[in-house]
Amino acid sequence: xxxxxxxxxxxxxxxxxxxxxxxxxxxxxxxxxxxxxxxxxxxxxxxxxxxxxxxxxxxxxxxxxxxxxxxxxxxxxxxxxxxxxxxxxxxxxxxxxxxxxxxxxxxxxxxxxxxxxxxxxxxxxxxxxxxxxxxxxxxxxxxxxxxxxxxxxxxxxxxxxxxxxxxxxxxxxxxxxxxxxxxxxxxxxxxxxxxxxxxxxxxxxxxxxxxxxxxxxxxxxxxxxxxxxxxxxxxxxxxxxxxxxxxxxxxxxxxxxx
Length: 258
Prior knowledge:
It is built from three helices and 14 strands. It is an alpha+beta fold. A hairpin with a 5-residue loop joins β8 (100-109) and β9. α2 runs antiparallel to α3. It starts with a helix and ends in a 38-residue tail after the last strand.
């Protein structure tokens, strides 16, 4: 009897373990999707930023222009919002020094309100911006204006020469008047150049810029539940997006004011 009782206990225990394994196999897995640090995220600028009108502390608003995929799953859909901050503004000097604009990306908001914070920098921008991007510092720098300065001095010299020639001709010494007028005109042009600042750095509304993530961003399947807006799964073998990976165009959705 004792042996029979133990056989029944062991059989029951085996059935319980087998049932638990079946339940575990049927239970949904908690998948996690991670966008790697260094990934470039294309963004569209919602408001214009410039060294002429912006100040340190001003907010900058953008939205994602292309979807970011991880393991065949769109984790950052088109139209997700990104908030940034102008951290520093340097006006162009009158004699030397170019305008500089520093922007730091702070947070990402998915269409369902899921938010991630970071401190990312700018890694690229399109030709619509007036200036050059320093990729090392993530700063937009205004272009130099040496050609414009030289043109201003030359124009001043030309005007002065014309006036001097007329005045010299009236006084009977056109050649001397020409030289004196040219020198005076060039000096006036140089003074005008010294009183004028260089070009501003401008990133206009609608420009496309690249945000380079400074840290990995992880999302669960629950985080990626977008309700009525469900980004489709990508067909084909797409691995986790590498730092310099390419993104694929995704479905457009109505723009919502930030």
